[in-house]
Write a structure and sequence with these properties.
Layout lengths: L1 H9 L9 H5 L3 H8 L1 H19 L7 H5 L16 H36 L1 H6 L5 H30 L10 H29 L3 H21 L13 H6 L3 H4 L3 H24 L5
Helix pairs in contact: 3-8, 4-6, 4-8, 6-8, 6-9, 6-10, 8-9, 8-13, 9-10, 9-13
Organism: Streptomyces ruber
GO molecular function, one term: ABC-type transporter activity
Pfam family, one: ABC2_membrane_2
């Protein structure tokens, strides 16, 4: 009787195993974070370590090495490697880290709805008193939390090596601004993947492929547009709003952050609307 009363008070747990999983299973948001905790930890640690490692190479950079950068790479942020902010804008935040953030968004977003629908688990989940809108919003909130965690780990890693890597010319506010932009970039591609899966019912691999392909395409467009004399094309890519305002040097660009946030909101809104109206039966 006690067990029955406790369950009634707490509300039914979401489908899952017993113990700690059931504790986190009281909320879609917390259950999603719990189920993805290992993958999220790997993403955060790998991105943070990679950022710190490449940041540590800055003291070894020579003038000859900076001058030897191919002209084609200038559009990817490698146009000013002599300053600390210029180096990080190219080697870390212009090349490696944003691609990892893009793939995090694509991979995680593809799991939010598509993986459950593909496996048939979505039917079981929606058999509980959970609306489709609530499910999707909780899932995207968990994805956003992961994006913030990755950005926070990158921020912490760079602040840790800041002095030893001779990056003191960059303020803590500059590092924080770039980390915020990184989280918004990851969220934008996560919203794209989640929205595609929710709107179309396509499988996880298809959703990941479309999102990752879009990310690589827009990243390449942003980098190579100056080479073909079409800088205006950069404004059509999320990467322009991620790093075009040079947050490391100039701080958080509110207009750019607003554009990335608006992109995510629009994708989530469209995905939610379509998800609420389509037949998910297979």
């Amino acid at each position: 009787m006690t067990a029955v009363r406790n369950t009634a008070v707490s509300g039914p747990a979401l489908p899952g195993t017993s113990g700690l999983s059931r504790t986190f299973g009281r909320s879609i948001y917390t259950k999603t974070l719990f189920d993805n905790r290992r993958v999220l930890a790997v993403w955060a640690l790998a991105t943070g370590l990679l950022a710190a490692m490449y940041a540590g190479f800055y003291p070894q950079l020579t003038a000859d090495a900076a001058d030897s950068v191919p002209e084609a790479m200038r559009g990817f942020g490698f146009d000013d490697l002599t300053s600390a902010a210029g180096y990080l804008q190219g080697a870390v935040f212009g090349l490696l880290v944003p691609l990892l953030a893009t793939f995090y968004g694509a991979a995680t977003g593809a799991r939010m709805i598509s993986a459950d629908e593909e496996s048939g688990y979505l039917d079981l989940l929606l058999a509980h008193p959970i609306s489709r809108t609530r499910l999707l919003l909780h899932r995207i909130a968990a994805l956003a939390t992961g994006a913030v965690l990755i950005a926070a780990v990158v921020l912490g890693a760079l602040l840790t090596v800041r002095t030893s890597a001779e990056l003191d010319s960059i303020s803590a506010a500059g590092f924080t601004a770039q980390a915020v932009s990184l989280a918004l970039l990851a969220l934008a591609f996560g919203a794209l993947a989640t929205g595609i899966g929710a709107a179309t019912g396509k499988g996880r691999a298809t959703v990941f492929g479309i999102t990752a392909g879009t990310g690589v395409l827009t990243y390449s467009l942003h980098g190579f547009a100056p080479q073909i004399g079409a800088d205006w094309l950069r404004h059509l890519t999320p990467f322009h709003y991620y790093i075009g305002g040079e947050p490391l040097k100039n701080g958080l660009q509110l207009a750019d952050a607003g554009v990335l946030s608006a992109i995510s909101a629009m994708l989530i809104g469209l995905g939610t609307w379509r998800f609420s109206h389509r037949d998910i039966g297979r």
